[in-house]
Amino acid sequence: MSLASFFTRYAAYNHWANRLMVDWVRNAERPLLDAHTPSSFPTLHTTLLHIWDAQFIWAERLHGATPHIFPSHEHQSLHEETFEGVLRSSEKLVHFVQDQEDAFFDGLMTYSTTSGKIITNQVSDILLQVLQHSTYHRGQLVTMGRSLGLENPPQTDFIAFTRLTP
């Protein structure tokens, strides 16, 4: 499998899993979205905002930009916009990787961190970071949701995705 094929499939998985998670959380009663529960971020909504922020910032960096304003700065109380933002940002990653040649993934990218530090990483490492990062926080959303009484979380394991796609 080429790197382009691998990352296209993995980005498609990320988008699929984010859609299932957003649909699950979207069906929760609105007060539960902002109910505090112990995790990396205090609420379901702020955890989704963080996923959106991370996907947004890495996509911007991959396009050569240095973002200074993140979605969470503008959408802290807007649940529906957060749901759509998570999905748009993960779909944007799918389209981005689909348009790349294999050599791109072996290349290096230099970018500025949020604190202004200049870093260089391999593009494939950056993509693995952003896609795995979302997986990590989807797991937290399941735990948080269950602690708040949400039932039937979606099955978002990669193998479940592979069983549904050719």
Q: What does this protein look like?
A:
The two termini are 14 Å apart. The protein is 65% helix and 6% strand. The chain has 166 residues and is mainly alpha-helical. The mean pLDDT is 93. It is built from 8 helices and 2 strands; from the N terminus they run H-H-H-H-H-H-E-E-H-H. Strands 1-2 form a two-stranded antiparallel sheet. It has a single domain, classed as dinb family like domain (Four Helix Bundle (Hemerythrin (Met), subunit A), Up-down Bundle). The radius of gyration is 16 Å and the shape is globular.
**CATH hierarchy: architecture:** Up-down Bundle
Number of strands: 2
Largest sheet: 2 strands, antiparallel
Distance between the termini: 14 Å
Characteristic key phrases:
two-stranded antiparallel sheet, mainly alpha, globular, 6% strand, Four Helix Bundle (Hemerythrin (Met), subunit A), 166 residues
What topology emerges from the helices and strands here?
Layout (H helix, E strand, L loop, with lengths): L2 H24 L3 H4 L10 H19 L8 H4 L4 H20 L3 H5 L1 E5 L5 E5 H25 L10 H7 L2
Antiparallel strand pairs: 1-2
Helix pairs in contact: 1-5, 1-7, 3-5, 3-7
